[in-house]
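step=encode ok
step=design start
structure_in=
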């Protein structure tokens, strides 16, 4: 169930340890490349975007675009855009039903093909995201990360990333975050293009869309609770700090 994040969230989060930026590519080339690629993709894929928008309207209703707050560079909160993949079905008291019930076959198709991610091209164009970088996780996920793991936010989040081409949701959270940290220490032109080409192959194979036995990705806090790394008191206190 999605809940609105408090606008005064930032005071509840300690500052992340910064990693030096460095590198000619990272400083002067990566951002212009992001703008050119995202703009070209939006223009080229505009017929696809229009068709998906129409299908979402017909099959799921309005709004067509799903908006959610995510932590970006230096943990600045931004609004991420995706095509909607779930219904707004609610129970008798007006609460949204679980994700696995609201996720339709059409929604699963959008997710498995990664077509639901296409509106993030706008996030790249506006500078909130990059083509390649650590995937923007939920704000609540950030609260369960260690200081070292939160260093992933020293880079712009990406449409795709090193963790996505090495398992996506099919690997553990610890592995995913370790791969994010590995990426931010090796941001190069060749490495980014390697990830882009690997991403294309992954999308066609539809690898690692969701964790085994789950229709949607598992939140970091829920994962830690499930495997016994935190108890319910710690879990509930961290969740209460943002809602």
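sequence_out=
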């Amino acid at each position: 169930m999605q809940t609105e994040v408090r606008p005064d969230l930032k005071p509840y989060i300690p500052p992340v340890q910064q990693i030096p930026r460095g590198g000619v590519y990272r400083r002067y080339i990566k951002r212009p490349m992001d703008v050119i690629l995202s703009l070209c993709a939006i223009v080229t894929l505009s017929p696809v975007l229009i068709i998906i928008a129409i299908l979402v309207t017909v099959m799921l209703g309005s709004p067509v675009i799903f908006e959610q707050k995510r932590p970006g560079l230096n943990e600045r909160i931004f609004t991420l855009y995706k095509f909607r993949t779930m219904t707004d079905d609610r129970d008798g008291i007006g609460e949204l039903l679980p994700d696995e019930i609201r996720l339709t076959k059409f929604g699963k198709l959008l997710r498995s093909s990664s077509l639901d991610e296409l509106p993030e091209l706008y996030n790249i164009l506006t500078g909130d995201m990059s083509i390649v970088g650590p995937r923007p996780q939920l704000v609540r996920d950030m609260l369960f990360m260690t200081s070292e793991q939160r260093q992933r936010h020293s880079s712009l989040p990406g449409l795709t990333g090193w963790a996505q081409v090495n398992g996506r949701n099919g690997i553990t959270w610890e592995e995913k975050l370790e791969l994010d940290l590995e990426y931010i220490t090796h941001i190069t032109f060749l490495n980014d293009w390697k990830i882009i080409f690997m991403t294309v192959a992954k999308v066609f194979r539809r690898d690692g869309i969701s964790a085994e036995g789950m229709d949607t990705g598992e939140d970091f806090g829920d994962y830690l609770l499930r495997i016994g790394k935190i108890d319910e008191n710690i879990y509930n206190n961290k969740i209460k700090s943002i809602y």
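step=design ok
step=annotate ok -> Residues 51 and 57 are 10 Å apart (CA to CA).
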